[in-house]
């Protein structure tokens, strides 16, 4: 297969994971991930490993279902393939409708490996919020300059 064909296959595979998430299909999502897959989730502080994966997925689906209908878009893909390894990077937009509305932009990197029997599987996911730029620096208040009057009072 050509690199372009493999790149499209990787992007289709990655899109299927989030399609399964939106469709509330955890078993279908997990089938697209390697059994040893790890995840840095945008809403979780710790690395999710295989040992915690099913519980993590169940919690993630529960919070998603409790929020409201989810709209999820993926765009600006940058995918690189090297033989049986690939990195797929993309930006995303998510919007949960009420009752627990939330929306935002994110960026995600997926690392994949191609296996002889299973084909492409995700071995790592790293999600994060899309930065809005470097935060402004807080200006320190300048110390007040001492005037001649201030100096003369202290000397007295």
Explain the overall architecture.
The protein is α+β, with helices and mostly antiparallel strands and 156 residues long. It contains four helices and five strands; from the N terminus they run ααβαββββα. The protein has helices spanning 3-22, 26-31, 50-67, 148-155, and strands at residues 33-40, 70-82, 85-96, 102-115, 119-129. The mean pLDDT is 87.
Query: Can you give the mean pLDDT?
Result: 87
Sheet bearing the most strands, described? 5 strands, mixed
Radius of gyration: 24 Å
**Low-pLDDT segments:** none
Order of SSEs? HHEHEEEEH
| Helicity range | 25-40%
Task: Count all strands and give the number.
Answer: 5
Which percent range describes the beta-strand content?
A: 35-45%
Oligomer: single chain
Give the class from helix and strand content and strand pairing.
Answer: alpha+beta
Coarse morphology: extended
Main sheet strand line-up: 1-5-4-3-2
Helices, by number, come to 4
Give the termini separation: 90 Å
Q: What does the secondary structure layout of this molecule look like, with pairings?
A:
Blueprint: H1 3-22, H2 26-31, E1 33-40, H3 50-67, E2 70-82, E3 85-96, E4 102-115, E5 119-129, H4 148-155
Parallel strand pairs: 1-5
Antiparallel strand pairs: 2-3, 3-4, 4-5
